[in-house]
Amino acid sequence: MKVTVLMTLYNKAAFVEEAARSVLNGSFQDFELLVVDDASTDDGVERLRALDDPRIRIIRNERNMGRAASANVGYAAAQGGYIAVLDADDVQEPDRLQVQVAFMDAHPEVGVCGGAARYFGTAEGVRSWPLTDAECRGRSLFTDPVLYGSCIMRCSVMMAHGLRSNDDWKLPAEDYLFLLTWSPHARFANVPEVVMRYRIGEQNQRHGRDPVADRAAVCKEAFRFFGIPLSEAELDVHMLFHQLPRTPVDRDLVRRFLAWETELIKRVEGLDLFPMDVFRAEVERRRKKAFHLIADSDLAAASLFIRSRGGVSMKDVSYLAKVTTKRWLGGQAKLD
């Protein structure tokens, strides 16, 4: 069997039939659809069984174990040479497997391949991921090298190195942390084609959670994985790279943020973890992107940012003037 399409399922009965049909009706047919149900309390499993398709194989957990542990059950049970992931609330494009299997067959050095995704639901748009291993790897301290829900993985690499998700990780982003475990053993890649549709809505794992606390926990784990020192005070500063500050944005935080940019690059250099040209470009991109958040928060902090680093466009300066005026007028209205 060429491919196992792995789907973990927990209380997504409203979506799972559409997800399954998108796999069953695709152009590539040498596959099994392996569904690991994490002790759902709705009728999702019954809806799958009603499809009455021998290509569907269902494993039911006796108790709710979490997404990471359920994925591990699927990895161990997969019979295909490749594992292609599809979340139970997403939809696979008809030629997804055809495109990704052809790419993996032609590139044996690649262990994980993702693709572009079309968002739908409460938000719409198309997002692409970097095509080359260097681009994927160079930004992996900050974000996922591929979109897990779009990826296809080489089982031989997974089995040879015992790659698994962390069963104990119950927060969002366990898929990102799992993908990091591949980085010492294989290359990453993405195809430019849109291979799946990613549903945005209340059913998403991140919905209703504290994004600051979740991202801080993920950052700490990513730094720990790569062996890069990170104190709690440095994490406070690093969160500006994600535009999710957990302390007030003021002159002191910006001063430490600018110093942390230099220190972070210094710590990473010589570790042979990332292509440094890509890593530096990603750090710079995120630093520049943080400017609007800083401008929204504090004029003095934004002025320090401009004086210290420059590289701010006239458009950004205009933005600073507008938000400062708006903030001043708001203060005047309160006084009146």
Explain what this protein looks like in three dimensions.
This protein is an alpha/beta fold and 336 residues long. The protein folds into 2 domains: 3-200, Spore Coat Polysaccharide Biosynthesis Protein SpsA, Chain A, CATH 3.90.550; 211-335, no CATH class. Helices cover 47% and strands 17% of the residues. The chain has 13 helices and 9 strands. The protein has helices spanning 13-24, 44-50, 67-77, 96-106, 133-138, 155-161, 174-180, 211-226, 232-238, 251-268, 276-297, 299-309, 314-335, and strands at 3-9, 31-37, 56-60, 82-85, 91-92, 110-121, 125-127, 152-154, 187-200. Strands 1, 2, 3, 4, 5, 6, 7, 8 and 9 form a 9-stranded mixed beta sheet that branches. The radius of gyration is 22 Å and the shape is elongated.
pLDDT below 50 for ≥5 consecutive residues: which ranges? 332-336
Class of secondary structure makeup = alpha/beta
This entry's quaternary arrangement is single chain
Main CATH class of the largest domain: Alpha Beta
CATH superfamily of the largest domain: Spore Coat Polysaccharide Biosynthesis Protein SpsA, Chain A
Secondary-structure element sequence?
Answer: EHEHEHEEHEEHEHHEHHHHHH
Cα Rg: 22 Å
Average predicted confidence as pLDDT: 92
**Topology-level CATH name of the largest domain:** Spore Coat Polysaccharide Biosynthesis Protein SpsA, Chain A
Largest sheet: 9 strands, mixed
**CATH architecture type of the largest domain:** Alpha-Beta Complex
